[in-house]
């Protein structure tokens, strides 16, 4: 079914504000839009699973996506949370191999998808896009290296405060993660997370609600995250 005018406009807005595609010229943007699709997922619906064919790149237009994997103990390990304006699936986009993790919609989501078979010829015709994609991958690698360093050098309160601030981002004070999920991202037990959050709640730094963590005092969290 052909995309409606509203859906095409939504895809164009998603591309225009995205760090990877935002600097494209109008005609380049139209080329990419010709191959892009807008798909929806319900909360908790699987987007793809580890080992599935890597058919393309996805960008979050609305909602949040959980990137996770199964740990050695059989439990889900939360690797990342993709917010509006972020891309995922870029590794499979480049090498065409299997997905390296699971992706699940945390909320109702709208995702912009671009198939690898369409994107690779576009990159060949627009090499500056390849450079920006490399920049995205480098940022992911830096983030992974930073997480490993944090686990080695930072104590538990610093790690928790830093991750909460990262997950909050700009203009968002509510984090929809369980304490177990938060712990899996930074290598801490649920008990350690619960103990620290309870302490901060008593001090008015955070507020704990059902399945969410509300950041109340960002300045105190920034102070706690400093090395």
Verbal overview:
By secondary structure, the chain is an alpha+beta fold. The chain has two domains: 5-149, Sandwich (Jelly Rolls), CATH 2.60.120.10; 154-225, Winged helix-like DNA-binding domain superfamily/Winged helix DNA-binding domain (Arc Repressor Mutant, subunit A). The protein is 46% helix and 23% strand. It contains nine helices and eleven strands. It has helices at residues 5-16, 26-33, 90-95, 116-125, 127-153, 156-168, 179-186, 190-202, 218-225, and strands at 36-41, 46-48, 56-62, 65-70, 76-82, 87-88, 102-105, 109-115, 174-175, 206-209, 212-215. A four-stranded antiparallel beta sheet has the order 1-8-3-6. Strands 2-7-4-5 form a four-stranded antiparallel beta sheet. Helix 4 (116-125) packs across helix 5, helix 6 crosses helix 9 and helix 7 (179-186) crosses helix 8. The mean pLDDT is 85.
For the sheet with most strands, the description reads:
4 strands, antiparallel
Low-confidence stretches: none
> Shape, please?
elongated
Helices and strands, in order, run as HHEEEEEEHEEHHHEHHEEH
Write down the Rg. Answer: 19 Å
Helix/strand class: alpha+beta
Tally of contiguous helical segments: 9
Content of β-strand: 15-25%
- Termini separation comes to 54 Å
CATH superfamily of the largest domain: Jelly Rolls
Name of the CATH architecture of the largest domain: Sandwich
How confident overall, as mean pLDDT? 85
CATH class of the largest domain: Mainly Beta
What is the number of independent domains?
2
Can you count the beta strands? 11
Task: Indicate the multimeric state.
Answer: single chain
**CATH-defined fold name of the largest domain:** Jelly Rolls
Question: Strands across the major sheet, in which order?
Answer: 1-8-3-6
Helix content: 40-55%
